[in-house]
Amino acid sequence: SFDNYSSNPLSNGADLYIRNASGEYDRVENLVIPDTVQSIGYEAFCCCTSLSSVTIGNGVTQIFTDAFYGSSLTTLTITDRTKLINPGAFAECEVKTVILGSGLQRIYQGAFYGCWNLERIFYHGTKSEFEKIELGEDFPSEMDEIYYYSEETPLEEGRFWHYVDGVATTW
Questions:
Q1: Which residues contact 40 (CB under 8 A, 6 or more apart)?
Q2: pTM, 2 dp
Q3: H-type helices in the chain, by residue range?
Q4: Cα 86 to the chain's mean position, in Å?
Q5: Beta-carbon count within 10 A of 84 CB
Q6: Residue 145 and which of 66, 101, 124, 156 are 20 to 30 A apart at CA?
Q7: pLDDT per position as a tens digit, 137-167
Q8: How far, in Å, CA of 84 to CA of 103, rounded?
């Protein structure tokens, strides 16, 4: 796991670079946290302005406080195994689209504080499942742009989504 800011040399770095096969460094804008990672620790990717997209792997069950605080994320995918998103985890990010996994049990107060660009939340479950999540008071649960997953064309009124060629798409 990325335990905390001191165990992760990427913390508080403006840009994230990874060495490629030819030995040169590539700037990372789209990050996939591998399934082998179990948690993302305190300030692990805080203020990392090179990141625009993050997909949290299936092994991650908890995202700790300020893990991505102030990063430049615009797209975020949290898979179904993540249970907890702690305060400030994505605060002050530029996130526009979030896909939330169906395994979420709690999103703490302030987890998405200051995400003023948030346009759509895609929940990978039903509305009744979403309503069971313990949400912090400032979570935008009443916003008009929460969509609920449906593999088939919905028969009822509401906001639904599905994947088309790996992309979240509204019905």
A1: 1, 2, 33, 56, 60, 62, 63, 64, 67, 68, 89
A2: 0.85
A3: 127-130
A4: 12
A5: 18
A6: 66
A7: 888 766 668 999 999 999 988 899 999 999 9
A8: 9
97-100 vs 75-78, strand pairing mode? parallel
Query: In this structure, what DSSP letter does residue 128 have?
Result: H
- One DSSP character per residue, 83-96 reads -EE-TTTTTT----
Task: Give the C-alpha separation, 74 to 99, whole Å.
Answer: 12
What 8-state DSSP symbol labels residue 13? -
Residue 142 CB burial class (10 angstroms; 0-12, 13-18, ≥19): exposed
How many CB atoms neighbour CB 105 within 10 A? 12
Structure tokens at 71: 């990063």
